[in-house]
């Protein structure tokens, strides 16, 4: 996920553009996630319309763990 910490880490590399491309290409979605995408999933799961859910693993990682 493209957080300030990830951005700082990428920008500290000798070739930030290449580091960003490499990181993004390691995911099937071929991009980094955005914090608001994570927030939307959290809000959806907190919605009363999902009240019957009692527990689950919900991967929000652009397909990374499905590889």
Name some characteristics of this structure.
3 helices, 0% strand, elongated, 45% helix, 67 residues, single chain, mainly alpha
Protein architecture, described:
- This protein has 3 helices and no strands.
- With 67 residues, the chain is mostly helical.
- 1% of the residues are buried.
Task: Provide a quick synopsis of the model.
The chain contains three helices and no strands. With 67 residues, the protein is mainly alpha-helical.
Low-confidence stretches: none
How much strand content do the residues show?
Answer: under 5%
How confident is the prediction overall: mean pLDDT? 94
User: What would you report as the Rg, rounded to the nearest angstrom?
Assistant: 15 Å
Secondary-structure element sequence?
A: HHH
Shape: elongated
Total beta-strand segments: 0
For the record, give the distance between the C-alpha atoms at the N and C termini, rounded to a whole number: 17 Å
The biggest beta sheet, please? none
Figure out the total of helices.
3
Structural class determined from secondary elements? mainly alpha
Helix content: 40-55%
Give the helices and strands, then pairings:
Layout: H1 4-11, H2 16-25, H3 35-46
């Amino acid at each position: 996920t493209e957080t300030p910490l990830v951005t700082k880490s990428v920008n500290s590399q000798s070739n930030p553009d290449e580091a960003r491309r490499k990181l993004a290409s390691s995911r099937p979605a071929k991009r980094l996630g955005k914090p608001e995408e994570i927030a939307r999933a959290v809000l959806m799961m907190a919605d009363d319309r999902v009240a019957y859910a009692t527990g689950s693993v919900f991967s929000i990682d652009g397909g990374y763990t499905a590889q």
